[in-house]
Amino acid sequence: MALAEAGLRGHGVELQPLDESHVHSLVDAASDGNLWELFFTSVPTPDTMGETVGRFIVERSAGTMQPFAVCLSGTGQAVGVTSLCHIDAANRRAEIGYTWYAASQQGTGINAACKLLLLPRAFDDMGCIAVEFRTHWLNHRSRKAIERLGAKQDGILRSHTIMSDGTVRDTVVYSIIASEWPAVRAELNRRLTTPR
């Protein structure tokens, strides 16, 4: 299941392997909407962006994560982060997570484009039998976006995570399994090729 990380591109976005050169533009992206102030998600503050990127690079070296800067095609401007994470080679599973986009990019189709790049990496290249998505119970926008992908809710992990502000998060777990992937792929392609 191991696969060397390479960039991915299509549908107006480029997923570039995350490195220190992205930190400054990611600070700008997170500042578009002051995303770190949202209680139901975990977006690094300007002061912790470099540390977070460094931690993700360490996890990539350990083989448990493939983190990417989400960049706009043409300009190369980083507008967010996404990753294949919690990679479990023995059980052929991974999660798509640690995803956030600048407020001005939300609702533009960028999420569907990123998923249409990451899901083939997981299912077709890495041989995953399931891909998970996890989000805060109260993050209704994220839950709707995950459900629009065609993921099914597996359950809710109650009192699962203590957030940076001390609140306790109930985590909603979704997944797409390998047998569902062809239909999910077809729907994502339809969404991205149908004029808005």
TrEMBL record:
GO terms for molecular function: acyltransferase activity, transferring groups other than amino-acyl groups. The keyword Transferase applies. Residues 14-152 form the N-acetyltransferase domain. It comes from the Bacteria. Gene3D superfamilies: 3.40.630.30. Keywords: Transferase. This is N-acetyltransferase.
